[in-house]
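Lesson 9: reading folded outputs for more than one chain in a single document. The general rule is that every protein is listed as its sequence immediately followed by its structure tokens, and records are never interleaved. Here is the first one.
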Amino acid sequence: MATTLAFDVYGTLIDTNGVTEVLRERMGQRALSFSRAWRDKQLEYAFRRTVMGEYADFAVCITDALDFTARAHGVTLTAAERDRLLATYQRLPAFQEARLALQALQEAGYTSYAFSNGSRETVSKLLGDNGLRPYVTDIISVEEVQAFKPAPQVYNHFLERAGRRADETWLISSNPFDIIGASAGGWKTVWVRRLPGAVFDPWGGEPTATVASLTDLLEVLPSPG
């Protein structure tokens, strides 16, 4: 049985807090809390849109979430500042270990995919800019089904596109909601728990395995088959 790896992108391969340095120029010590609040709101808007059946590109969720977060923090962004932050989000850095980890998995014989709430175009550019694109077989985006993770149809779509079965597919993600969504569909899962204080959601079961870094994946995955 072949083992297929589906890598979440935002927060797993790509560091969404990479925008913090630009934020710090405007907000000082509040930059990290602003970045985290902005990210949380993006996901909330994606969840809402899926429930409402009002899908829009994830870039719309990012933009709307920035406007809300600025208001919530009492920050008035100029048009130039807003545009710069949104442009920075299109150039986020990869986590330091991502390239070496993906390369090691490829050399070990695993087949890896990028599996994201982001559009194929946006994800392709992010992976390309960070030197990660050669290590993923394909990019599978939720835009193809007009719904966001953790909607069941998203995980089913991945399996159809990749031609895989749930029991041979492993989701690699730092997002507990994504892990729970994949587990509900019968997938195996690895939670990337980078922060020691991170807490997994207390429902939906536990991930199949937990790692602190992408470089630990070879220690917990079955053979590539």
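And here is the second record, again sequence then tokens.
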Amino acid sequence: MLETIAANKSFGGVQGVYKHASDATKTAMTFSVFVPAHAKGAKLPLVWYLSGLTCSHANVTEKGEYRKICSELGLIFIAPDTSPRGEDVADDDGYDFGKGAGFYVDAAQEPWAAHFQMRRYIETELPAIIADHFPADMKRQAIMGHSMGGHGALTIGLRNPSTYRSISAFSPICSPAQCPWGEKALGGYLGDDRASWREYDACALIEDGARSDALLVDQGLDDQFLTEQLKPELLEAACDKAGINLTLNRREGYDHSYYFIASFMEDHLRWHAARLGPAAR
């Protein structure tokens, strides 16, 4: 049962927020969807946007400045939450683990395994809901994200090349196995066996044979997390070795905020639209 929380007309389309009971997380989950104006019966390509640490669906929905260009290009834009939530959901004192920090993994360790099944939620459960309730062409999907969500977009996209035609990221955590955020999250959710971490690390996935025709990444050079946590040079090296066409835009003066994301959101959406093909509007 899909509950409509809000529906607002914007740029001729509808920006909605929805809630449902998730089988994957065993909690209520909230997500937002923007559907541009379209002809009756038309099916539209869609772009998934995965958010970062401490965020929910609301951050990009309120700050991402994507609706005008999605209306022009005929793109559905979907923003899921970043973790399960609720009083019975395990949490941590830090901002980088627990609620708001699901890292798009299927947790194997207790107490996290009971609810933190974000990989299954994003890859399987939510797409089925989108297909059933929205005018989405599920054969034309793209995925993008920011920071922790950039990690999610890269890993989910690389693991599912037949599902997503294009992959991009803003300020992604490029190798969680090689940064403090990722070591805490992957160790906590998955356990100490670092071999099990590899399917959640974009650089490791590429080393192990995952491929994409092209990747687009934008990274601000004034990002306070650049050196310790994000490490785009590791992704650059992995793609170079594997022969993957990576466009890595290093943006002078930009930080980790939504001011940065909003500045280059149009570039990413146009890049995805070119790979998704024209919308049947």
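What the second record shows: The longest strand covers residues 136-146.
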